[in-house]
Please model this.
Amino acid sequence: MKAMGRPVTQSVPAFRRLAALATLDLQSDRLLAEAAMHSRSLQPGRELLTEGAPVPGPTLILSGWAARARLLADGRRQIMSLILPGDLIGNCRQNLPLAVSSVVALGHLTLCPAPAITEALKQAHAVSHALDEAYLLAQITRLGRLSAEERLIDLMLEVRDRLALCGLVTDNAFAWPLTQSALADVLGLTPVHVNRTLQQLRGSGDVILRAGRVQLMDPSGLATRVGHVTARVTSDTEAARHDR
Amino acid sequence: MKAMGRPVTQSVPAFRRLAALATLDLQSDRLLAEAAMHSRSLQPGRELLTEGAPVPGPTLILSGWAARARLLADGRRQIMSLILPGDLIGNCRQNLPLAVSSVVALGHLTLCPAPAITEALKQAHAVSHALDEAYLLAQITRLGRLSAEERLIDLMLEVRDRLALCGLVTDNAFAWPLTQSALADVLGLTPVHVNRTLQQLRGSGDVILRAGRVQLMDPSGLATRVGHVTARVTSDTEAARHDR
DNA sequence: CGTGCGATTGAGTTGGTTCAAGGCCAGTGG
DNA sequence: CCACTGGCCTTGAACCAACTCAATCGCACG
Model:
């Protein structure tokens, strides 16, 4: 479908992420290309996984955003984590695990089964899983100890880092398809307050936010301001070399 | 050391938890008994794992409580999760992973290496890991969407459920070695406000709290009040049958 | 008999919520 | 072509849950 000589791991953002997490051999590459053939698509708002239901096989997000969320009895909703292109869902060790949260598509979604036959792919899955956990911990400190403004900045920095792994960040600008009310559910705030906080950030020139995209004007400045550190999970420096 | 005919999985609370998570065979039992020989102890406040440092082999908490915490630049601290007897730390899939958070002993701690040679033990580790993740998600909704009182109740219910797996709960009463300021770091509150919220709970007769122990007066009432659901990770009903 | 840590209390402040309108599209159907 | 609808964003004003600051108390320990 794309240029023949070029491996899919370079042309598809989601695959670039996997290639950044582990060194993929030729066979892994072929398996991914094969998996991409069986991709399916999902409409916004559709559930990709339901809390309490058995988890299907591991699935790779090819494009679009999703959210791992839990709904409380009285209608409150908390989004535990965002799921971005290249992320895996249902990536766990057990035989027949039950989902501990729902996963819902935040926009149009494309996904395919995630093969994990080769050692390289298994490694990529393991690293991806470790990163997922790191993101959960980051989310906990955000909610527990950061102010509204800090939460917002910290989240944007995390998303930037994560999208950078797939090569979806240029000049610190990237997609931002989040509704303010979805954002509120991520950050544990009200939509109204998210709105006001966003305005503050725009007003101070820290971010530019229009038409479903953000640009961070001074990422490293912001990072030191909120004490953000990029999640690292392996000791090798391999991942760093991959982002162009 | 204990009665000869009785397997260690019944006499040691931490082992009872593992036995509750997977059906342990005789060999697993022997391995645990062997591991217990190599137990070591740790003083309160000591770090069991340091953020950014490589993770040692999987370790089992035999007794005492610990906390997985992250410290912010300005001194704020967030405890991501409590680590209780029978819990595993450093229980992950990777070769040489880096710790994404520190683990600090909240009191006197006893621990031993956690063997995972047999299939049964591997299974127990996998289930334990899945539960850990479920607790992280619970922590996120607590911090993001629950009020101070709800957070406190929900946490107490979680701890009760978890300690029950080791048989450390009698009549809904169990150990509660948490300082109010540690509790504040868990719940994302200030110590002062934790104090006031605790008084409220005591005043309303919902909990009795003295001398490092809590008793929940109406756990199921409390559970429905805060929408607490006990984490379940496997579809089999086996785990339920184990708690006496 | 200090000394220090943890729990408690009071009074004032604030970050974030709530409630309630309005505004701004993009899509839809007449 | 325009009116109508439904999401989503924006704004204002009042309110309140939780925070801050600062003392005081109780107690275990040396």
